[in-house]
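Quick one, tokens below. Sequence please?
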């Protein structure tokens, strides 16, 4: 199962809105096949694992390990549970049940009714963690939310900038940290900034330092006061602007009207759920980050900490969280927190 989890991660950034799934087939203690879900709409992990087995006769005396319950319905591809039964694989070990309503135990039921010996719940915690975005989306009806910011060693995310300094990002960490941020963007479905961040930093929010698909860009602009020449409005990739105004969209640029009545976050998250967005990076700035923290609507925070000192400026958000990971990035650090 550990190997199945390992190969499943290779699908990161390519399979959403499907989950990452890995599959390993074992005969007499030896792995004879393995596969993972490579791309949305393409073959599932079980299909790729079966296809990788050189001698298909061995399948009738093998055990199939899979991180997530095999599907039982026709979607983009045929049911994997049917394939397992057709191949005569007698033993199936499953990491966790699929929370998707069209599966949710039906795959295991079909396998058992077909004569398979099914064991479930092996390394379940690790398998759920692997697909925490997928589980959050289906169970909480919203994206998995990652708060992200960079802060100095003394806890500031920006200087007190004058109008003349707008459009010039305040660089706090280093090149390796920037690569890590771009990799994160390639892994996630959407990225959100507030009005002040868009105006002050003029961010592109694209993937440039890593290979992968850029996330859906989102920006809040209640009164449509942001300059049209900002990089966010260059129509290079799909972008949604949340506003109180009725505005006609353009290619790759959509204006979504919401009510600014105190529950803007709920409206945005409902909209993202309806779009099938499973993960969201909240890039800032301070007001937007604090609004998510204050509403207790977030799952993970990634804080990039540099060695510089600002001594005064815009303070980093304060929050209660559990540190789950730290990673040294040359002379900077990346800390990962989970909500307590």
């Amino acid at each position: 199962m550990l190997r199945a989890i390992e190969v499943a991660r290779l699908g990161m950034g390519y399979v959403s809105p499907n989950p990452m799934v890995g599959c390993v087939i074992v005969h007499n203690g030896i792995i004879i096949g393995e596969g993972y879900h490579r791309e949305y709409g393409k073959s599932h992990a079980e299909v790729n694992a079966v296809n990788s087995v050189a001698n298909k006769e061995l399948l009738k005396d093998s055990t199939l390990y899979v991180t997530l319950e095999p599907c039982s319905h026709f979607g983009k591809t045929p049911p994997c549970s049917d394939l397992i039964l057709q191949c005569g694989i007698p033993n199936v070990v499953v990491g966790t049940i699929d929370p998707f309503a069209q599966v949710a135990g039906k795959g295991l039921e079909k396998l058992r009714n077909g004569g398979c010996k099914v064991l479930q719940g092996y390394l379940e915690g690790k398998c759920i963690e692997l697909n925490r975005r997928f589980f959050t989306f289906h169970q909480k009806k919203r994206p998995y939310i990652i708060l992200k910011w960079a802060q100095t060693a003394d806890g500031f995310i920006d200087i007190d900038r004058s109008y003349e300094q707008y459009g010039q990002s305040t660089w706090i960490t280093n090149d390796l940290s920037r690569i890590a941020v771009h990799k994160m963007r390639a892994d996630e479905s959407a990225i959100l900034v507030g009005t002040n961040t868009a105006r002050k930093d003029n961010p592109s929010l694209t993937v440039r330092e890593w290979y992968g698909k850029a996330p859906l860009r989102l920006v809040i602009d209640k009164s449509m006061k942001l300059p049209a020449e900002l990089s966010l409005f260059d129509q290079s990739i799909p972008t949604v602007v949340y506003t109180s105004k009725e505005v006609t969209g353009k290619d790759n640029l959509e204006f979504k009207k919401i009510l600014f009545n105190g529950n803007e976050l709920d409206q945005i998250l409902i909209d993202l759920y309806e779009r099938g967005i499973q993960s969201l990076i909240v890039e800032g700035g301070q007001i937007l980050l604090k609004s998510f923290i204050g509403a207790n609507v977030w799952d993970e925070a990634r804080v990039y900490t540099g060695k510089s000192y600002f001594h005064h400026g815009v303070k980093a958000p304060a929050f209660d969280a559990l540190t789950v990971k730290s990673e040294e990035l040359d002379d900077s650090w990346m800390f990962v927190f989970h909500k307590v």
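The CA atoms of residues 156 and 310 lie 7 Å apart. The chain is about 25% helix and 25% strand.
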